[in-house]
Design a protein that fits this description.
Elements: H1 23-31, H2 34-50, H3 57-89, H4 114-124, H5 128-136, H6 146-170, E1 174-182, E2 187-198, E3 201-213
Antiparallel strand pairs: 1-2, 2-3
Length: about 220
């Protein structure tokens, strides 16, 4: 009988095997080892992957990650849209009590801000993804806290400034406008604007505001 040589981490396969009189007993013992079972499992999985019976682990992990990202985007989009809506309309976001989770879509007795009530309004209007998130999310993963609101506002500011700078850089000419006002407490607010020429039209856009303490 022609028995092939085998190599692994045991005496069966790390060197040439020639103890054929004890082969059945040794092979039976070898089959019970953990590394043999692992190798058989790995070989079977490799065959299943090659025949498309199962997906490779990297594909499975990548699919789950993509699904998780898509799910996160679905519930974070209405939150971002609400912040942007308040900004575009010049509406304040916060009220007397704007912390904690939203446990009900009934409007509270004490005003907790336009932002939270707009989320309730949207949930009551049929946004099931947002409603499910607000009712079932962990308290530290609601993404509606004042800190998150400020983060979203800061990102919006970065996007607006980048677009404005891009327009100014591509303009034929531009100038910087500065104006300041001071109150009785000694706080001076400096506002910067940009005046530039775009497509033969003059545009003026607000750029930056800075508070200074006068000495």
């Amino acid at each position: 009988m022609n028995v092939p040589r085998m190599f692994c981490v045991s005496w069966v396969v790390t060197k040439q095997y020639n103890r054929w009189k004890d082969a059945l007993e040794n092979f039976s013992s070898h089959q019970t080892t953990e590394y043999h079972k692992y190798c058989r499992l790995a070989a079977n999985n490799l065959l299943k992957v090659s025949t498309n019976e199962i997906q490779p682990i990297d594909v499975v992990l990548d699919s789950r990650l993509k699904k998780e990202i898509e799910g996160n985007r679905k519930f974070i989009e209405p939150i971002i849209d609400t912040v942007v809506f308040c900004g575009r309309q010049g509406i304040a976001l916060r009220g007397d009590k704007d912390h904690g989770s939203i446990e009900s879509f009934d409007y509270p007795v004490h005003n907790d801000g336009n932002f939270r009530n707009l989320l309730r309004y949207r949930s009551r209007g049929g946004d099931k993804v947002l409603a499910d998130h607000l009712l079932n999310c962990a308290q530290n993963a609601s993404y509606i806290s004042p800190v998150i609101q400020n983060d979203i506002i800061e990102v919006c500011n970065d996007i607006i400034v980048d677009e404005l700078v891009s327009k100014v850089n591509s303009a034929q000419c531009f100038s910087v406008l500065a104006d300041e006002t001071a109150d009785v407490s000694g706080i001076e607010q400096l506002s910067l604007g940009i005046r530039y020429l775009d497509c033969d039209r003059v545009h003026e856009d607000f750029f930056y505001s800075l508070c200074l303490y006068m000495t």
